[in-house]
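Quick log. Single chain, no ligands specified.
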Amino acid sequence: MARRSQDASDIRDRDTSKRVGALAELWPFVKPYRLLMTGALLALILTAGVSLVLPLAVRRVVDNFGTQDGAILDLYFGAAVGVAALLALGTGLRYMLVTRLGERVVADIRKAVFDRVIGMSPAFFENIMTGEVLSRITTDTTLILSVIGSSVSIALRNLLIFLGGLVLMLFTSAKLAGLVLLIVPLIIVPILTLGRRLRGLSRENQDWIAASSGNASEALLSVQTVQAFTHETASRAQFSEVTEHSYDAARRRIWVRAFMTVIVIFLVFTGVVGVLWMGARGVRAGDMSAGSLVQFVIYSIMVAGAVAALSEIWGELQRAAGATERLVELLQANDSVSDPAQPVAVPQPTRGAIGFDGVTFSYPSRPNISALDDMTLTIAPGETVAIVGPSGAGKTTIIQLIQRFYDPDAGQVTLDGVPLSKMRRAEFRQAMALVPQDPVIFAASARDNIRFGRLDASDAEVEAAAQAAAAHTFIAALPDGYDTYVGERGVMLSGGQKQRIAIARAILRDAPVLLLDEATSALDAESERAVQQAVDAMARSRTTVIVAHRLATVKKADRIVVMDEGRVVATGTHDSLVAEGGLYARLARLQFAGDEAA
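-> predicted structure:
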């Protein structure tokens, strides 16, 4: 619950002083489609120009009602139909081009954000919920689509009509146009003033929506744990609280926007009525023709409608500006782990020598607690090294630093003598295969989950890896065998089955370095024995690092490294460490005595 309160505080404290200029950040995504944008702009200018021509035709019709020659009226009405056809064609073309541009740009933004986020180190996800990232990719980009695919073109069209209408009003009647210009500042001021407030509320609303998505994602991804601990009521209350905050921000945004709309429309149409009244008096006095008055009134209505539309669209632009800022935050987020500008090539062939040289490390979320403290360790190519020790000793941290999910605060980690920080992560990770403590199963078939380790593997290679991991029997018994869909996060599989698929995935990768983080913790005795045989066979030809709590799984390791509080406290074989009588001997005595008692 403390996390929720912190989220709420962070959202309330967001900076809301930036302007709609944030939308300029979208230009790099629009720029590649300048031809499409130019076509849309030309169609937009065409429709705006045609709209401004129509009142001229109406004036001619009105002023020629009394003419004896009906052919002139027929000509004007025919011209009006032609103008209407041109307006319809231009509007349809504008809609097609602008909508296509919006969809293309938003697709590129979504891909850019995902491409950026999928490569971020785990430290990035310590400070942001996955659900919030997904909300930004979906909800925020939908707002931007609305703006690029609709609002911007409508705003530009109305701006052209507003400016063109004002100019033509001046030519029609300078006196009446002067009255209109006096009204315009009264309309612009509330738009700018209330628009600033509206943008802040829009940003807050979007942040709460993202927090709501994060809350729901977290609960639904752990639904069995939620239900097992009868936490449904509390989870519902937490989600309800965040959702109500989102609604409250939306309600305040709606009130501000409605108030702004009321003020703008009242001022606009009050001005139109005033101008119409003055114009009617001018017609009666003979200062202008009835057609001129009608023309002026139409332009007045067009200008007023344009201002009203701009006030509406301003609110949309405010919301899109907030969404753009949030997406740009992801695109420009600093990652504590990054590839070097001029990377060193990974040694080929990769031998698998791993070195820790005076490594000190603390997790970003726990900067005052050392996970590793001045640790030095050398693992020879082809050596099988087991890392053991009590919980919190730093065992899994070693696995994470070998993959460079984090960078050490001091010292360096090397592969074949080359510091990991000098190589490209995607390249040196090709030389590694991981079986994590919590096996990750994707919403795909069993075959695709194993092939995740090497996408170009044949079906025969996939099945051979499953055989080696003692997974073939249970996979073959599934309804569709290897093609069976195993559900989101492998919900159709048991814990041991998930772990065997994860091991098969690592076997298929056939990498020079094998990393096993509690790889057999969820297996029964029979499966563990079969998998252990597969692991032993793999370990003969590659460097293997095994993290284990169960010491029975590490007896055959070439070397056992005992850790405590981030330091290496002993190394040796099982027998030599037991003979020393230190921490390992105490752990072994507790575990093996317990096993014998059982």
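Residues 1-18, 594-598 have pLDDT under 50 and may be disordered.
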